[in-house]
Amino acid sequence: MVVASLIATMAFQAGVTPPGGVWQSDSETYRAGEAVMAYNYPDSYPMFLRSNTIGFVASLSTILLLISDLPFKKRAFMWILVVIMWLTITSMAITYAFSIFVVTPIKDRKSLSKTIVVAVIVWCSVMAVLLLVHTGRLIANALEEEHSRHVAVKRNRIAFLKKNFLVGYVISIVKPRQRRPNSGVV
Q1: Residue ranges per domain, the chain?
Q2: Is pTM beyond 0.70 here?
Q3: Taking a C-beta distance cutoff of 8 angstroms, is the pair 58, 88 a contact?
C-alpha cells in the first residue's frame, strides 16, 4: 500500500507539473497554467499524459483493492493485484522516459534515445518473463488444487461405499433374511 501511495503521489505531481513546467502568462497561442511540453512536444505529450494517467489510476486501483475486503488469500486475487502493480510501475517507467527526454538538451538526445530504447526492450522482456512465470504458477496451483479436490472427493466416495457395504454386510449377518413359504406356484 505504501508503494502504491507513493506512485499515486508521483503520478499526480507529474500530471500537475509536467516536465518543462507550465506557461506563466497568457499568450495568443497558450494560456497560463498549460503545459509547455504540450506545445514544444505535441507528439510526445499525449503519450506522456496517457502513461502517467495509467500509472495514477492503476496505483489508485491498487490502494482501493487493498483497503477493500476482498479475499486476497486466494491466488487469483493476488495475481490480479500483482499484474496491476506491474502495470503501474511500467507506466511510471514510461512516464520517466518521456520526462527525461523532454528535459535533456538537444545535443544529448541521440545517445539518450538509444539508452531509452535498450531500457524499454530490457524492461518489456523482464515484464514478459515475470508475467509468464506468475501465470504458469497460477495455473499450476489451480490444477494442483483441482487435483487435490478430485482426490478428496474420490476418498470420500470410497469411504462412503466401504461404510455402506460394511453396514449392509453386518445387517445381513445380524438379521438373516426370512424365507417365504412356498406358495405352490412353480
Answers
A1: 1-103, 106-176
A2: no
A3: yes
Smallest Cα–Cα separation from 95: which of 9, 39, 2, 11?
A: 11
Q: What radius of gyration, in Å, describes the C-alpha atoms of the chain? A: 33
**Block residue for cell numbers 518489456:** 124
Q: Which three cell numbers stand for residue 123?
A: 524492461
Strand residue runs (E) in 13-101: none
Contact 83, 131 (CB under 8 A): yes
The C-alpha cell at 36 is 509547455
Long-range pairs for 142-147: beta carbons < 8 A, 24 or more residues apart? 142/75, 142/76
Q: Which distant-in-sequence residues (6+ apart) come within 8 Å of 30 by Cβ?
A: 23, 39
CA atoms within 13 A on the CB side of 104: 16
pLDDT in tens, 23-73: 898 888 888 888 888 888 898 899 999 999 999 999 999 888 888 877 767
**Dist. CA 142–CA 96, nearest whole Å:** 37
The whole-angstrom separation of Cα 71 and Cα 80 is: 12
